[in-house]
Write a structure and sequence with these properties.
CATH architecture of the largest domain: 3-Layer(bba) Sandwich
CATH topology of the largest domain: FAD/NAD(P)-binding domain
Bound molecules: ligand NA7
Strand content: 15-25%
Radius of gyration: 24 Å
Helix content: 25-40%
Shape: globular
CATH superfamily of the largest domain: FAD/NAD(P)-binding domain
Structural class: alpha/beta
Low-confidence stretches: none
Number of helices: 15
Number of strands: 20
CATH class of the largest domain: Alpha Beta
Number of domains: 2
Mean pLDDT: 96
Largest sheet: 8 strands, mixed
Length: 542
């Protein structure tokens, strides 16, 4: 392949849910687009996260594309919550059905993207030594796609097998007869632990912070039921789009203490029996804003843990203390029950911190744990990690890393001032990770595609967020977050899991429905907060 820059209209980085749909929409606009993907196939997060027990914690019938009625009809989900292999099969089906692969460069990492101010184009440099020049660059890199590196002393000295949940071997791992240590009890750990416990001779779970987890109540889906849901899908999806979290549940109308103690308990029990991530959070409308209301839901969740886990000391160690929901609530199948197994031991790192990983296992303050395998379920450099992994340079030679030195700043979570013609799909400052990602992805991709059509129709080819628009958006998003309990937790929402990362609460908390209306309003008002112009008129007002 020549090292000369190939010219296209748009480069899309990433071939997960966002990148695939972006390619569909760019083709509809008649634009020549290339998707660049570091994996050797489609799927994004669902390509990499192959750990045992990996499944979506949003219901399958909502965690799927809605843009094609034919696709909706022909794909029949088999379970309430789809497993990673089923979601990956779905995305492969989408790639084939819409003939997307011919415009995707696999096994290619985007290393740098540089904006050329002279002609308003991006030069995107890739790991194979080639580069692409494009008018537009869409970062469809995912929010949870840059695995966090284990930051524990002695990590490289361990002589046994090591695995990271987000980089799981394609051929799988057999833990039969092994002594396994799992570090991390976020969603990945909580999904993997029950499955690993079924195989391992002995499983030691090294827990730093306990998490709230709701029962999934997963179940097979009858094809007849799926067909009925699909037949009425437009209404279901409309409700999801207008909801807070991108799921088709009506928002609660009452506050926690507006009802009697009995009624409150009944609603929590009802949610717990229904299962799913919103089991408790959808019971009352002040869950995220009122400390006492949140406390009531916390107490219910802790009581459930103590009812399930037989050993009181283990139950106490598994009981979280933070405001429920302020670190992402997990969804599990038999997670707490797993601690009743004879081959599973919880190691509470708050009582005995890890001193080092050794050649033979893990040494805590109290003792040495001898292990054959170590599983790191330690999460991601969330929301900004995958963007910062690319050397992105905008106007005036300023890099994105420099622009975001004190935390990410965007306009609508879609664009960054000083980085014209670059779009972020579900970037920081948008609901993204607080929502059903696929609903948010479709909204962003549609918004970007409509914006590009607007530029085409008006003979324009350069769009840039203004500093003033961005400042106002950042202040607005911060104000919204500050009115909730969210920023208080040491979560990956604020970057607290990555040493040295600026502590800024990154997502937009006011719900998908409100956010969608605000984005549409911006477009209706001639892209208020953006400067639209032609490449040869840079510096003059549009
Ligand atoms: P998370 O939610 O970031 O969880 C990571 C876990 O790893 C969490 O329990 C951390 O404890 C723990 N961790 C991280 N570093 C260490 C060290 N050094 N020592 C001990 N424990 C550590 O990542 P997941 O992959 O589980 O889930 C991410 C999202 O993917 C999830 O929310 C879903 O949206 C899908 P900590 O809480 O920092 O004390």
């Amino acid at each position: 392949m020549s090292t000369e820059d190939a010219e296209v209209d748009a480069v899309v980085v990433g071939a997960g849910f966002s990148g695939l749909y972006m390619l569909v929409r760019l083709r509809e606009l008649g634009l020549r687009a290339v998707v660049v993907e570091r994996g050797d196939d489609v799927g994004g997060t669902w390509y990499w996260n192959r750990y045992p027990g990996a499944r979506c914690d949003i219901e399958s019938l909502d965690y799927c594309y809605s843009f094609s009625p034919d696709l909706l009809r022909e794909w029949v989900w088999s379970e309430r919550y789809a497993t990673q292999p089923e979601i990956l099969r779905y995305l492969n089906h989408v790639a084939d059905r819409f003939d997307l692969r011919r415009d995707i460069r696999f096994s290619t990492r985007v290393e740098a993207a540089r904006f050329d101010e002279q002609n308003s184009t991006w030069t995107v440099s890739m790991s194979d030594g080639t580069s692409l020049r494009a008018r537009f660059c869409v970062m469809a890199v995912g929010n949870l796609s840059e695995p966090k590196r284990p930051d524990i002393p002695g990590f490289t000295s361990f002589a046994g097998e090591t695995y990271h949940t987000a980089l799981w071997p394609r051929e799988g791992v057999d833990f039969t007869g092994k002594r396994v240590g799992v570090i991390g009890t976020g969603s990945s750990g909580i999904q993997a632990i029950p499955r690993i416990a079924e195989q391992a001779e002995a499983l030691f779970v090294f827990q730093r912070t306990p998490n709230y987890s709701m029962p999934a109540r997963n179940t097979p889906l009858e094809p007849g039921y799926v067909a009925d849901v699909v037949a009425g899908y437009e209404g279901r999806r409309r409700m999801a789009r207008e909801s807070d979290a991108g799921v088709p549940f009506p928002a609660a109308q009452q506050a926690t203490f507006e009802v009697s103690d009995e009624e409150r308990e009944r609603r929590y029990e009802e949610g717990w029996a229904r299962g799913g991530i919103n089991s408790l959070s959808y019971a009352f409308n002040d869950f995220f804003t009122d400390e006492e209301a949140n406390q009531a839901a916390q107490e219910f969740a802790r009581r459930k843990i103590s009812e399930i886990v037989r050993d009181p000391e283990t139950a106490a160690s598994l009981s979280p203390a933070h405001h429920i929901g302020t670190k992402r609530t997990c969804v599990d199948t038999d997670y707490f029950q797993t601690y009743n197994r004879d081959n599973v031991t919880l190691v509470d790192l708050r009582k005995q911190p890890i001193e080092a990983i050794t050649e033979g296992g893990i040494r805590t303050r109290d003792r040495d744990y001898s292990l054959d395998c170590l599983v790191f379920a330690v999460g991601f450099d969330a929301m900004t990690g995958a963007l910062r992994a690319i050397d992105i340079t905008g106007c005036g030679g300023r890099t994105l890393t420099e622009a975001w030195e004190e935390g990410p700043r965007t306009y609508l979570g879609l664009a960054v001032a000083g980085f014209p013609n670059m779009f972020l799909v579900t970037g920081p400052g948008s609901p993204g990770v607080l929502s059903n990602m696929v609903v948010s992805i479709e909204q962003h991709v549609d918004w970007i595609a409509d914006c590009l059509r607007h530029l085409q129709e008006h003979g324009l080819d350069r769009i840039e967020a203004t500093e003033a628009g961005q400042d106002a958006w950042v202040a607005y998003v911060n104000g919204l977050a500050d009115a909730t309990l969210y920023p208080e937790a040491a979560s990956w929402y604020v970057g607290a899991n990555i040493p040295g990362k600026p502590r800024v609460f990154m997502p937009y908390v006011n719900g998908c429905g409100n956010y969608r209306r605000e984005c549409d309003e911006v477009a209706r008002n001639d892209y208020q907060g953006f400067t639209l112009t032609t490449a040869d008129r840079v510096g003059t007002s549009a």
